[in-house]
Amino acid sequence: MSAKQAEKEVQRIAILFEEECAHGQVTAAVKFQKVIEMWATEYAELNHRSTTLQREHLIAGRVIPALGYLRIDKITARDIQKFLNSLAKHGANKRNGKPLSQKTMRRHLSFISSIFEYAIRLDMVGANPCSKVIIAILLRR
């Protein structure tokens, strides 16, 4: 799927979701991936620079396979912690096979936290589990 096709698909999904919201069909039982897509079209594309959007797109490429299938109201701090811990393992960096840097891990956590803050504003969840997550200082082997 090309970038343009992907963008059209995200917009189509966002429109469908908005229609569901208008008819009162949306609850917290929404998959995290759907909330990411909503956040991207309704918030990020309107408020972030193109370079930031590119970085967030790359981060979403890691977050969606790990957490996207979960309902947003069921994601726990432990789920997010396990995901971040996986980024600290050898092989997480696709270019050099090393763990991701702490700065990059913080960006991933910040991205996930932004999605939860957006969901809180929409009354989809009541709390942000990212506030309980830490980025451990791991020894590099």
Automatic annotation (TrEMBL):
Alphabetized UniProt keyword annotations: DNA-binding
Keyword match DNA-binding: yes
A Gene Ontology BP annotation from the UniProt entry: DNA integration
Keyword Kinase: no
Pfam families associated with the record: Phage_int_SAM_3 (PF14659)
A molecular-function term among this protein's GO annotations: DNA binding
Lineage: superkingdom: Bacteria
All copies of domain Core-binding (CB), residue ranges: 30-120
Residues that span the membrane, as ranges: none
Family statement drawn from the similarity comment of this UniProt entry: Belongs to the 'phage' integrase family.
Protein name, UniProt field: Phage integrase, N-terminal SAM-like domain
Species per Swiss-Prot/TrEMBL record: Ruminococcus albus
